[in-house]
Amino acid sequence: MENEPASSGPRGANEMLADLEADRAALATQVRTPAWYLAGVSALAAAFTAGPLLGDDRTNLLATLGGALLVLAALLQQRRRVRPAKPGGVAWGWTLLLVVTLLLLLSVSFGLVAGGLAGWVALPALAAAVVTYGVLRRLDAQVRRQVARVR
Fold first, then answer.
1. How many helices (H) and strands (E) does the chain have?
2. Which DSSP string do the residues of 70-117 spell out, in sequence order?
3. What is the mean pLDDT of residues 110-122?
4. pTM score over 0.85
5. Cα(140)–Cα(88) distance, integer angstroms
């Protein structure tokens, strides 16, 4: 028939499945989050956590961080050229953990600045960068697993 490929049958089906598996593996490498994105978002999280060092007016910092995050996200989508499936419940759990951790570290930074220990704000900022990097790596691994196992 017109719709059937020329290599129908068990051998043709096995070849087609092997081709699909190769395509899936190629897509999984395209979905990988680049290191520059992870480092950039981690640096933005550190800057957010160090925000209390600026005093009372942090509006410019928040606007700059938000704009930089949007630029990084746009560059990532342009580079990936593959849109992964929507995140599952586990990804949302990791994201919630990241947000709570960043807010906790921001609170520590406020406490350090209020206590006159502004120099120590570097520690929660560094912790924010490390936690952000770790969570993003875990989310990236989960997305690659999702793409690789799609059937």
1. 5, 0
2. HHHHHHHHHHH---PPPP-HHHHHHHHHHHHHHHHHHHHHHHHHHTT-
3. 94
4. no
5. 13
